[in-house]
Amino acid sequence: MQLSAGEKIMVSVFYAILVVAGLLCLFPLIHIVSLSISDTHAVASGWVTVFPIGFSLHSYQQLFEGTPILRSLWNSVQITAVGVVLSMIFTILAAYPLTRTYFYGRKLYTFAIIFTLLFGGGLIPTFLTIKSFGLLNTYGALWLPGLISTFNLLVLRSFMENIPTELDDAARIDGCGDWLYLAKIVLPLSMPVLTTLALFYGVGYWNSFFNVLMYMNDTTKYNLSVLVQQMIQSQTMLAQMNSSDSADQILLTPEEINSAAIMVMVLPIMIVYPFLQKHFVKGVMIGAVKG
Amino acid sequence: MFRSYLQETLTPYTFTIREVSLIGNSIWKRNLSLYVMFAPVIVFFIAFKYMPMAGSIMAFKHYNFGDGIWHSPWVGLDNFRVLFSTPATIQIIRNTLLLSLLSIFIGFPFPILLAIMLNEVKAMWFKRLVQTLIFLPHFFSWIIVAGIIVTVFSQQSGVVNELWKSLFGHSFAFLYHEGSWLAIFVSSGIWKEAGFSAIVYLAALGSIDSSLYEAAGLDGANKWKQIWHVTLPGISSTVVLMFILSMGRVMEVGFDQVFMLQNSTVSNISEVISTYIYKIGLMGSQFSLTAAIGLFESIVSLILVIITNRIARKFGSGLW
């Protein structure tokens, strides 16, 4: 189709706006990378914009030597790995029965689950409930209440509902029970959406902040989020770190260390993101259209 | 339910009574294995969703640690009376509404516009590249985003302030003035979520029948008219749906974002329900009082969703 001059202008304006939008998302990140590896002097004088000026890894050195970041990194890995496995298992176990038409009470359960999206118990009663289960100061307080995200459950359910029923019928005739059918047919067919949900759960656990802050009393159990938050909010901690250093070492700016800490949190996401991106676009779209 | 299931699935066939009872048996057996799967799920929803929901009755009690939620003494509406007669809580509710309404109304068009523009892009590599970039911020936590903001707007050597200095000759404490704080708050929310929220609209756009565009083109509609008469009506039900869902969130301002960005200088506008519950409830042990404000929040949200859904249903696109 031939585009008129006006249409051409419109489409090029669209392209231009999208380029700006993409760059707006990219620039802050590049800026942080550059701050974290630039020379202290350049950072302190505010010269660093897009590209790094000079090169030094002092910020990372100080971050790993002067703060408990390795421990919180390990905590974050633990929280995420165990959390994703548990959440995936139970989300699958929740979604599959809800797609079976012969499941007694299906409508009631679906309603009860959707209702939790509309009305929640609130922070304080939830906190006290979890406390009464004796989960305070254990990672159970992160894994158990977050076991099933209602939204993810609904996405998976709508995906599974779309699997043709002929497959089910055929499997029945072959004497295939629900467990076997779920494992052999439903799960392999649901791979794109399962990858998406694993990504969502993974990012959720990796980024979890408020729950850790609320349920963990023991600072050695803090994850990266809480540690980085405390670094950002208490510049005094950095001041102390700096003053305890030997005199010949250069004083680092808070910007540098914060940037390095942000990079430690961002990097794992950046590494996984490209591999999973094509899946989640597909997966979310399926959930979005049907849900 | 069982009978209707049999009728639905089996009417095309004829069965002897023995065969039907066999199928009935196997349905029992199949339900057994389904219930083995589903039992932990039921336990989960009761323990972590419905028990806290029932625990909300503590809003009508005077909670103390010794008696727990269930045995603490009733106080009727006392907690609510205290809440609504304290100027501080009124202001917190007002702040919550201000921040969330600003975020919703200013932020709402962005994902729609992004999706419509992306839909007009014919070069696939470009579309994919832009999508990759604009979806990315969604996966960063508020700790990361706020960390970036604090760094970029820092008064000592932040890049924005360096630019400001070179333009106006003095630095400006962006995060310590109410107006600029509000602007940063709202735009950071848009920066983080607008791209990812566009996915829903992209999905809706993808399901528009392409023959509609061809027909419009044959009728002489230019691109602009096609967007107006085909694209927008094609996603209008999704737009309404997203609007209903966002109405349910009017009473909540995400804790992480406010908590990370707020400081005592701007607390007049930055203290919201969630941060109040955290500070006064959890840190200050005012459990009943903050449970009351939490319950108030939940109920108002539920009512708002129901009302918007009613209105949406009048236009034929309700959520239920």
Automatic annotation (TrEMBL), chain A:
It comes from Paenibacillus glycanilyticus. The chain crosses the membrane at residues 12-30, 73-96, 108-130, 142-160, 181-206, 257-276. This is ABC transporter permease protein YtcP. The lineage of its organism: Bacteria, Bacillati, Bacillota, Bacilli, Bacillales. The keyword Membrane applies. Belongs to the binding-protein-dependent transport system permease family. It is found in: Cell membrane. Residues 73-276 form the ABC transmembrane type-1 domain. It is a multi-pass membrane protein.
TrEMBL record, chain B:
It is found in: Cell membrane. Keywords: Cell membrane, Membrane, Transmembrane, Transmembrane helix, Transport. The chain crosses the membrane at residues 32-51, 97-118, 130-153, 173-191, 227-246, 284-307. Residues 93-308 form the ABC transmembrane type-1 domain. InterPro entries: MetI-like, MetI-like_sf, UgpAE/MalFG_permease. The keyword Hydrolase does not apply. It comes from the Bacteria. It is a multi-pass membrane protein. PROSITE patterns: ABC_TM1 (PS50928). Belongs to the binding-protein-dependent transport system permease family. This is Protein lplB. The lineage of its organism: Bacteria, Bacillati, Bacillota, Bacilli, Bacillales.
